[in-house]
Write a structure and sequence with these properties.
Two copies of one chain form a homodimer. The first copy, chain A, has one domain: Farnesyl Diphosphate Synthase (Orthogonal Bundle), CATH 1.10.600. Chain A is mainly α and 345 residues long. In chain A, strand 1 and strand 2 form a beta hairpin. In chain A, helix 3 runs antiparallel to helix 4, helix 3 crosses helix 7 and helix 3 packs antiparallel against helix 16.
Chain lengths: 345, 345
Amino acid sequence: MGATGQFAGAADGAGLKAAIAPDLARIEQAMQTDLATLTGDMAALLNEVLHYGLFNGGKRIRPLLTVLCYRLCGGSEVKSTVDIYRLAMAFEYLHCATLFHDDVIDQALTRRGRPAVNVAYGETAAILAGDFLHARSMLLVGRGGGIQALEIFCGATTAMVDGEFLQLHNASRYNLAEEDYSAVIMGKTARLIGATCEIGALVAGADTAAQQTLRDYGLQLGCAFQIIDDLLDYLGDEARTGKSVGNDFREGKMTLPLIIAMTRAEEKDRERLLAMLASGDERKDGFVEACTLIARYDGFAVARHKAEAMIDEALAQLYGFDQAAVQQERAVLEALASYVLNRNK
Amino acid sequence: MGATGQFAGAADGAGLKAAIAPDLARIEQAMQTDLATLTGDMAALLNEVLHYGLFNGGKRIRPLLTVLCYRLCGGSEVKSTVDIYRLAMAFEYLHCATLFHDDVIDQALTRRGRPAVNVAYGETAAILAGDFLHARSMLLVGRGGGIQALEIFCGATTAMVDGEFLQLHNASRYNLAEEDYSAVIMGKTARLIGATCEIGALVAGADTAAQQTLRDYGLQLGCAFQIIDDLLDYLGDEARTGKSVGNDFREGKMTLPLIIAMTRAEEKDRERLLAMLASGDERKDGFVEACTLIARYDGFAVARHKAEAMIDEALAQLYGFDQAAVQQERAVLEALASYVLNRNK
């Protein structure tokens, strides 16, 4: 999820952007304050790396979800002792820790249009700064949300690693089923987004049912987000996304459109896709041909339809929150769900 | 700190080894049980990597210290709801997570005589498995020790990263002062060992004074351990340590013996050491000459003396624990301190 400016392009983008601006500013402020507090005890270089990696135009969707779900469940600054922004930023810390480590693993050169941390400061700094944010995020969640929040948060973190390992295991398994793909995106992406929503509800004092409802909202949102992300890797407009298309296919990575096509294709076309996948050279040259084959079996359309069904499911979780006082929060959570479907970068 | 068998070589080694064997077995069992519990939800490859990285002959000093300090402060299995072994293993998890990441950073080939995790399973697996253990260790500490234990644990973890960054910053600073070195080893090594002891006391219900006393025991022990480790890099018997000597000097790493020599040396000898450090080639060839110069200014003797003073200080922290019921624990903590000084590998 790119820069906040992107919301301006969504259906009711300008309204959404205005609605979330105050919360985003508070989240940003909480992070700046936290780093400033740490500075005294901390190596100057670590502080510099953290600033570089944390303040780079990230949209802060995860902490925003925590804050919104907190208020949706009746949490308010007036009556609470929880500093919800300070708790919420833990999700951005963990997310950034993951990005630092992922960029080392993928030997990525850039992140959001700038040299990635591993390039700007080296792999050692990227690994260690990720570890720092990891530990600090756990502490912030434990402090702000107690042991129950920590359980949810750590469960999501270990699920994330588990999802990455599943993905490792799935590499060059070209007969992947949709369930294998679902397990990976659930772990890699959706569990943390589910946890942001669940913990927001938890610290607001919501009952278990409401916590689970908002967790489900987050899980569906997260899965849909990842499916759309994988679709954009085939169908994105490079001028808008700023990323070249076809990377997943060239790397032989089995995402949903390809899995669907492989499952539905006639013998001949399936063999052709398999041959392309198995030969690294053909994978590199055959992207357009692969797209044609995937489209022939509605791989893109069916994948998009699945994402739409998930967003419907996410929206359905919000129905019960019908108190007049929280309709602004509900509208923003609905708009975020629509944004996931309609983003084009 | 190598395999448990090494205790047999210490002064009263056989007795120490026998005394700690039951606790070590329980710690090992707790780790095995924890991984077995996780297996169902977890990628098989992740489980395999964790087993490989965790069960490799580590001495489990950190969890052992937690257990010993817990009992020293009156903690007992009979009257407590805390599973102290389950809490204690978190320290081994965190320690191993650090080793996985360090070995990626250093591109290490072996660890305790076997291919390092990054070699056996690749860098991706090593980074991710480290992240998994990191998150799980935080959860175990939060569960077993509550938020206060989590504060101590996360504080030690972020200090560890901070110490590594200080070390990065200090690379090729050949005018390092003893304080710079102390700050690095305090963060990198001692803080976590202090935390193991402090948390053991905390969960036993000890008062703040006792928690701080045992924290100080751990800090002194940890610093002395690191000084001896750095001394062995100059003076160790390769046949015993299984590691070649001279690595630190060849890498231009400023450890205590060299810092002391640089501070005390006459102009001519200081210039000579500086010239060797500044020229990569001379660093590689000049190890024996460097040892002679360091010895001329008592760099080794003074460093050892400092470690001895720290161990005296560590032992002094134990004086107050004079109840008859805990003399076995106290004796083991004393023997561990002596072992740190007398180890030769």
